């Protein structure tokens, strides 16, 4: 029960058991003025605060009610002890100062750390020379082979360290070429299992997707190349800067050539246990005359020559002695080929002319410049979805880049290009276009080595544009499991119908039939054949989804079975639907990665195979699956915008600058090393701050 008591001082009624603020509120309103209410509202409401002023609970409950004098004293004490509020502007100033100081400290520590690291990279004293053990066969190789040439059996660095000493007795893996396929193979190969040798006429890996950007100075040339020796160092391999000329498949010897220090060509043999041909391709001339007046875009040297030619034309057009006719011709840029390379170069060229030219060159040049894109098909980017091709054409039309579709170049002259164009009514007219620069980018063709190998293998090679391989990437016509071909120089042969007998042999034996051609397949047998086809030809999986419908469609006589003729017709239909794999970097990369995993597994299986004396037969198929290409999509830059075609079942979209940043991010992530990524990022930043480099050197 609550105790109540009247105060002598004020005669007010107070409830002592209530919280302090409730006790104050029990005072009559006529005594507590508005100012006094504000004082009360600022007083602490917690009994804990009151307990600090009372010696114990008993004192607290027997204390007489507070008077107005007490209230004034409490309000004075509370106002003195109340924290002072800081202005918001001052708070933000403190936070900014703290953030700025932390940033300066972080950057300073980074700069100091960099200089400390940089100081450790210098060597003040000469490296100690020591006695080396080098085999006489390394200095004076023995001669042999069909042409009695030196055979490089021992390298001069085989005794450099313990790792190389262990590797010299490993199986010899020779890779011809340092492109996408060869580098992908090197990066995923187990270095403990193979003695690796790379033979290439260039000592660098080139990041080809960004090559058009280097032609106009958006990216520096060094940002796209990585020293091949730095990549090979990861697998402790050897590098020979030479050109492969021929291969002796029976003796397992690669004939290579190089010009020595006296300018004399030297040839020698490189032995191998497994050989990978990844020499790439060359530009397809299509039998057109006058291609010596054109530029190509396959190598870093081509990019430098193109940049120099563009700058040269711009500078010549500024001279007062240049006539109007010559000026228009010099500023007429023609691109032959509407594929990704041609389209991206035209887009980069437009960016250069539109963003940098108008600032540094006379305005007259911008009015006289013209860019023309010649395409033999009815759309540019014809391997992409039609909506993306149309978007690219509309974008070029807006940017005043002339797209000439259904046009075929017949001749290239020194100062003009002649082509035929098919009109909408079917008529063909011949046109001649003045030009000061022409880029030829119209497909690929076989390199010289591939032509030599194809001629040597005869009937096993029927493709005029690339070397044919089976689905395990083994070169047709060579000893099984010795020679492989990947990248642009090769194509996978999808001849499903030619293997019909091998598919039926086990089923015929199961049914007791000696001649597979007399076998009739029930649906269960057809399902068994389909599984064999999927395993041997992975690219056919997409065409064998509805086995019941295929069985019903090709059962012409409605007998409930498929005879030999009906099965052959079905497999030939599947053959016709299988297209050649695209000659792209992602295909070469996937094939190189596939071979690396296969070789790693073959090396692990080698001891067991030797123990069981298994050296012949289809070891590749027994150890590893067939190669299956997975299309990850296609990208193209079309001038401050980009298009994405992510496959048959993927997304297809295009956009402006956000798509450009996505396009850059994808290729940035695919760059071969951290070094090239840093250089690419610096080049993009340099372009934004200072513009492109308009220098010829």
Automatic annotation (TrEMBL):
Belongs to the NADH dehydrogenase family. This is EF-hand domain-containing protein. The keyword Transmembrane helix applies. It is found in: Mitochondrion inner membrane. It is a peripheral membrane protein. Keywords: Calcium, FAD, Flavoprotein, Membrane, NAD, Oxidoreductase, Transit peptide, Transmembrane, Transmembrane helix. InterPro entries: EF-hand-dom_pair, EF_Hand_1_Ca_BS, EF_hand_dom, FAD/NAD-bd_sf, FAD/NAD-binding_dom, NDH-2, NDH2-like_C. It holds the Pfam family NDH2_C. Residues 542-577 form the EF-hand domain. The chain crosses the membrane at residues 96-117. The keyword NAD applies. Gene3D superfamilies: 3.50.50.100. Its main location: mitochondrion.
């Amino acid at each position: 029960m609550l105790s109540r008591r009247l105060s002598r001082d004020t005669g007010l009624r107070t409830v002592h058991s209530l919280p302090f603020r409730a006790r104050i509120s029990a005072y009559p309103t006529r005594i507590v003025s508005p100012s006094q209410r504000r004082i009360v509202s600022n007083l602490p409401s917690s009994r804990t605060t009151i307990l600090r002023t009372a010696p114990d609970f008993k004192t607290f409950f027997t204390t007489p009610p507070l008077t107005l004098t007490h209230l004034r004293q409490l309000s004075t004490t509370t106002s003195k002890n109340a924290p002072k509020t800081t202005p918001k502007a001052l708070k933000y100033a403190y936070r900014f100062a703290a953030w700025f100081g932390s940033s300066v400290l972080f950057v300073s520590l980074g700069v100091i750390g960099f200089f400390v690291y940089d100081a450790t990279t210098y060597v003040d004293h000469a490296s100690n020379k020591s006695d080396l053990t080098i085999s006489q066969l390394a200095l004076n190789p023995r001669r042999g082979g069909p042409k009695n040439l030196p055979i490089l059996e021992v390298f001069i660095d085989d005794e450099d360290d313990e790792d190389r000493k262990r590797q010299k007795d490993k199986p010899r893996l020779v890779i011809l070429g340092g492109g996408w396929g060869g580098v992908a193979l090197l990066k995923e190969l187990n270095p403990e299992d193979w003695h690796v040798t790379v033979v290439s006429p260039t000592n660098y890996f080139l990041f080809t997707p960004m090559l058009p950007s280097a032609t106009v100075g958006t990216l520096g040339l060094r940002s796209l190349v990585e020293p091949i020796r730095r990549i090979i160092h990861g697998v402790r391999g050897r590098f020979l800067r030479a050109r492969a000329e021929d291969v002796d498949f029976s003796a397992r010897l690669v004939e290579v050539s190089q010009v020595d220090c006296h300018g004399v060509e030297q040839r020698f043999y490189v032995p191998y246990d497994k050989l990978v041909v990844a020499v790439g391709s060359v530009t397809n001339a299509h039998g057109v005359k006058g291609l010596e007046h054109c530029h190509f875009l396959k190598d870093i040297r081509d990019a430098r020559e193109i940049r120099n030619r563009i700058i040269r034309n711009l500078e010549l057009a500024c001279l007062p002695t240049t006539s109007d006719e010559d000026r228009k011709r010099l500023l007429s840029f023609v691109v032959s080929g509407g594929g990704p390379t041609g389209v991206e170069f035209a887009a980069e060229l437009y960016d250069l002319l539109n963003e940098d030219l108008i600032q540094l060159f006379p305005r007259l040049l911008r009015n006289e410049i013209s860019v023309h894109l010649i395409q033999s098909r009815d759309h540019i980017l014809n391997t992409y979805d039609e909506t993306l091709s149309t978007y690219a054409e509309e974008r070029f039309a807006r940017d005043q880049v002339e797209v000439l579709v259904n046009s075929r170049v017949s001749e290239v002259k020194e100062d003009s290009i002649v082509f035929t164009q098919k009109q909408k009514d079917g008529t063909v007219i011949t046109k001649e276009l003045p030009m000061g620069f022409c880029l030829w980018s119209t497909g690929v063709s076989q390199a010289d080595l591939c032509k030599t190998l194809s001629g040597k293998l005869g009937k096993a090679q029927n493709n005029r544009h690339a070397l044919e391989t089976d689905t395990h990437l083994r070169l047709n016509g060579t000893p099984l499991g010795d020679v492989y071909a990947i990248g642009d120089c090769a194509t996978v042969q999808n001849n499903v119908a030619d293997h019909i007998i091998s598919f039926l042999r086990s089923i015929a034996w199961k049914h007791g039939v000696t001649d597979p051609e007399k076998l009739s397949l029930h649906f269960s047998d057809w399902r068994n054949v389909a599984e064999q086809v999927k395993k041997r030809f992975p690219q056919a999986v997409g065409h064998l989804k509805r086995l019941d419908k295929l069985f019903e469609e090709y059962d012409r006589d409605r007998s409930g079975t498929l005879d030999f003729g009906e099965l052959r017709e079905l497999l030939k239909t599947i053959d016709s639907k299988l297209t050649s794999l695209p000659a792209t970097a992602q295909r070469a990369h996937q094939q190189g990665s596939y071979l690396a995993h296969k070789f790693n597994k073959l090396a692990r299986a080698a001891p067991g195979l030797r123990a069981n004396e298994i050296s012949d037969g289809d070891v590749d198929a027994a150890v590893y699956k067939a190669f299956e290409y997975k299309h990850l999509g296609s990208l193209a830059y079309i001038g401050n915008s980009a298009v994405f075609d992510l496959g048959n079942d993927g997304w297809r979209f295009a956009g402006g600058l956000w798509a450009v940043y996505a396009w850059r991010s994808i290729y940035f992530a695919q760059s071969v090393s951290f070094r090239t990524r840093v250089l690419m990022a610096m080049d993009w930043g340099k372009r934004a701050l200072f513009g492109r480099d308009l220098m010829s050197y």
